[in-house]
């Protein structure tokens, strides 16, 4: 453990074995887990509130849970476990709130092919998660003849009807957040960061980069009140992008669409044409061991579907997986918050087969990097979903005892090798 939040902290530097207050390492670990999960809930609630949606129960829990972690308030290990699971419940409510707000504002996503090439003309690259920022940018840039490209977690924006109707939303460039220094350096237009997943920029493109909303970077111009005129003027002042051919990425398999073809999926499962469904997604990161996810999906048998979401999909979304009776084998459900869509699909399938979600031919193989992924994991545990595999490493904030409790109750596993994990899952 490490705690230095009060004046009495050991040696004036931090308690590392047991708190001076009497808090043990497991309580400290659960408090850390709770705080980390709350950050994810805050992110989704923030975006929902921007669109005019809020949940009083989620807001009240934030206050209750934060107060719980204050010095000398709660030393009960079992109650902290309950709080962590309740955090998962509140995160589910927040994701549902955001999903409904996005669909209400921008329409229900539909499968869409997105070009990865360039169209000639001045251009802006937008990264992050905020769809309202993108909508306002598209409106303002359209009037000035400036094209807009998405990056990272903005890829799913192309699937929303009210966004894809803009003719200047022309394509997608680059991959996940950890590659942005190289990718932004090579993109010749203006760049806009809207939320998390931004990195301190290199000097070579700092003057072309802007932030807005909650994102801020040192030495980078920050846009207020969604007035993107400065970004647009910068794009127009730079050499126009040359025309360049590219490939295509497909996104937009929101639960509304997947449920509309659920009968086809169910028939294919019953006929033995779909043997298993894998959810492989989550956060991306720089560790070489994350190649596991690429190799895993490559080795998934051809009679299996692969659902994905979050920026973890960039490990394999460029591959051609074909289809099963017209159903694409790779279904990109959207941003990390679209874990809500995956949950809705799982619940619907369980209802159709009259079984528990844990009895479905469904396996979750998740990658995590930051706090939002942790809150989603807590949501899955709140729902009682078992046999989840996560990687590439275990969360450092969980003590062996706390991790052991999760493993004992939910059979949470760390990834091993693609071959071994697939063998264990499929038999």
Annotated CATH topology of the largest domain: Rossmann fold
- Please indicate the count of domains: 3
Major β-sheet strand ordering: 4-3-2-5-6-7
Count all strands and give the number: 16
Average pLDDT rating: 97
Note the main sheet: 6 strands, parallel
What's the gyration radius in Å? 22 Å
CATH architecture group name of the largest domain: 3-Layer(aba) Sandwich
β-sheet strand percentage: 5-15%
Secondary structure tally, helices: 15
Helix content: 40-55%
Low-confidence stretches: none
What separation lies between the terminal Cα atoms? 39 Å
Structural class: alpha/beta
CATH secondary-structure class of the largest domain: Alpha Beta
Described by the principal axes of the CA atoms, the overall outline is globular
